Amino acid sequence: MKRKLLSLALCLVLIAATFCVLAACDKKDETDYEITVWVGEGTKTLTEQQIAAFNETNEWGVKFNATVEIVSESKAVGDAVSKPADSADLFCFAQDQLARAVQSNLLAGLNTASVEFISQNSDADAVEAATVGNSVRAFPMTADNGYFMYYDKTKIKQSSIGDLDSIIADCRAEGVNFSMNLTSDGGWYAASFFYATGCHSNWDTDENGAFVDYDDTFDSDAGIIALKGMKKIFGLGDNYVEKDKVSDFNAGTPSGVVISGIWDYEAAKKILGDNLGIAPLPSFTVDGQSYQLTSFLGHKFMGVKPQSDAHKAYYLQKLAMYLTGKECQKQRFEEVGWGPSNKELKADETVTSEALKALEATKKVNQGQYPTNWWAKMDVMTQSARTSSDLDNVLKGLLQTYSATLPDLIK
Fold this sequence. Notes:
Blueprint: H1 2-26, E1 32-39, H2 44-57, E2 63-70, H3 76-82, E3 90-94, H4 98-103, H5 112-121, H6 124-129, E4 131-132, E5 135-136, E6 139-145, E7 148-152, H7 164-174, E8 177-179, H8 191-196, E9 201-205, E10 211-216, H9 221-234, E11 240-241, E12 255-260, H10 265-272, E13 276-279, E14 283-286, E15 289-292, E16 295-304, H11 310-323, H12 326-336, H13 343-346, H14 354-361, E17 364-366, H15 372-387, H16 392-405
Helix pairs in contact: 9-15, 9-16, 15-16
């Protein structure tokens, strides 16, 4: 009997403890947290408004006193690595920086609720892009980090759209430039020629973001064709502009074509007005065969910095869910034209633009993770291709030199 009474008492204690835990979870936190948030150009004010809305509506009574700063998504991870103590609690960054962020321990591990939120609300490509090893590490914000063609309708004939040789001929005839950054943007644009010919460069990471293996086929007959396609643009000489800015439409010698992305849409409209043309990437022809230029499709993420305060860490992930949720993504589309990663919004025909339609119509390959130095090695190769002959053996030598450096990128 004594043992039964002890067992009953123990059960009552456990039940009481469970109710206490549940009550604590349901209790409003009502704590003010000081945080810093890094966001991309054009979204500072909107983000401040969205955080204010979270403060007013969240069920826990939590308040975030946020200092929102503009830091380019391409630089956020590098800035955090160089000054970790000054890095933001939440920071927006481009997909190609994810592995480096994981390697540098910049990202807090996501809890079950966050992973479920991302998996249930983001499209499959975005979930895959946010995954390192077998773990989802960041909150997808956009699925629009790709490129297409802006052109001046008064310089490029409508009949030329879709064919690179015809577009180049129009540029020559009109004395205008062709802007595409093939030699100093880390291969992001140059890769479009390699993927067009069927090449690939796939890199595998472990759970810590370290690169452990790769499969690269650029050093091939298809790679030679890709370089020959690039040399058609290089052949413009001074009329090839090593840039991707729509401001080139206003240059002393204006560009007739600029290969760029969503981020330049509003500026392009202001410059060219009704003369602005937007189209998918064209195809190019080598030895009588046509190849469709292929854009990367990259994403932008929001990362959460590791925290020593477990409560703050928990609510920061709640805030990240809110800021990357359906409503906030729609607001960013309406404010700055960013394309959503939320699968419901991607299926919504009202959440689109001329630029997003051009990107959607462009052939794309989902951007993976690449070692930081891979991009520089692509630049070395394309810079050499710009000044070399187009003989097969010369181009083959450039590809062999590039390929020989890749094993050094595995650590």
